[in-house]
Every structure is written in structure tokens, then in C-alpha cells.
Amino acid sequence: MRGPAHTEHTPDGRGPFDQGSCITSSRYDLIVIGSGTAANVTAFNCRKAGGSVAVSDGFACMGAIDTVQGDIRIDWTALQRHKRSFTDPVPDKREHAYASQGVDAYHGRARFSGRDTVMVGDRMLKARHIVIAAGAEPVRLPIEGAEPLALSEDFLNRESLP
């Protein structure tokens, strides 16, 4: 089983593919761009099979509550607190899961710099395979008059009810 990736250096020993620059480089069997469900399944299955894996997530980091009162009133503050009780811990849990499985996590926007190379900040990641699993996001309706409509995320992130 292969362990985490290794840093490669130029033949003259000056550094990883840098020709004097500050770019560092690592080689993997798989780079996954994204950290959602599809990315996790892909990364963890490749790691279980013995491959070296890196994940880039593009971010700087990674009980019942009485929310209904009466028949129609919603305690929005309590509902938001409940939502955050299970969404806020997700980045830390995901980070821990990657570390415990030997998956290297990089934070920052990934961009291709070659057919087998991805840059995340000043890190050059090389891989035999690259998967883009950057997730999905809601699409605004392409119809006249749809501009004022809120997406579910817009609504769920409100501090108070309209």
C-alpha cells in the first residue's frame, strides 16, 4: 500500500520543479477537486485501494430543538441554531476524516497548469488521474420575473423571517 505523496526535486537539487522559484510540488495517484459527497467517496475509495490522494476544497478552512411553537409559529432563531448545529461541524469533521485516512487536504482554488498538474496556491500537485467533483449549486430560473425569487440557500441563511 502506498503512503502519502512525496515531494519531487529537480535533478540539481534546487527544489521541486522550481528553477529557483518558491513553488513546491507533490505527486499523487489521484487529485480530487472538491470535498462534497462525490469527492469523499472517490478519495476514500482510491485511498483504500492503496493510491495516494490529494483533495483541494477551495475554502480557507473544511438532539431536537423546540423550533415550532403552536400550530404556525416558527422560532427562526432556534431553527437557525439547529441548522448550524449540524452544518458548522462539517468542515472540521471532513478535515479529520481526510487526515485519518491518509488523504492530503489543500485549501485554495485549484487550477490546471498542465494535463496532469493542478496548482493550489503555490503548491504544484501532479497526478496520474484528476477528478473534478466540485459539487452542484442551485440554478436561478431562466424566466422573466425570476430575479426576486430566493434560492433555498438564500432563504436558509436569513437571520430573520421576512
Observed structural traits:
two-stranded antiparallel ribbon, alpha/beta, single chain, globular, 9 strands, 4 helices, disordered N terminus, FAD/NAD(P)-binding domain, seven-stranded mixed beta sheet, 162 residues
Measure the end-to-end span.
55 Å
Beta-strand content estimate: 25-35%
- Describe the main β-sheet briefly: 7 strands, mixed
Spell out the helices and strands N to C: EEHEEEHHEEEEH
CATH architecture descriptor text of the domain at 6-60 and 97-135: 3-Layer(bba) Sandwich
The CATH homologous superfamily name of the domain at 6-60 and 97-135 equals FAD/NAD(P)-binding domain
Mean pLDDT: 76
Query: What would CATH call the class of the domain at 6-60 and 97-135?
Result: Alpha Beta
Into which percent range does the helicity of residues fall?
25-40%
Q: Give the low-pLDDT segments.
A: 1-20, 62-69
Written description of the protein model:
- The chain has helices at about 35-50, 75-85, 90-100, 150-155, and strands at about 5, 25-35, 55, 70, 75, 105, 110-115, 115-120, 125-130.
- The protein has a domain at about 5-60 and about 95-135: 3-Layer(bba) Sandwich (FAD/NAD(P)-binding domain).
- The chain contains 4 helices and 9 strands, in the order ββαβββααββββα.
- The N and C termini lie far apart (about 55 Å).
- β8 (about 115-120) and β9 form a beta hairpin.
- The protein has about 160 residues and is an alpha/beta fold.
- Strands 1, 2, 3, 6, 7, 8 and 9 form a 7-stranded mixed β-sheet that branches. A two-stranded antiparallel ribbon has the order 4-5.
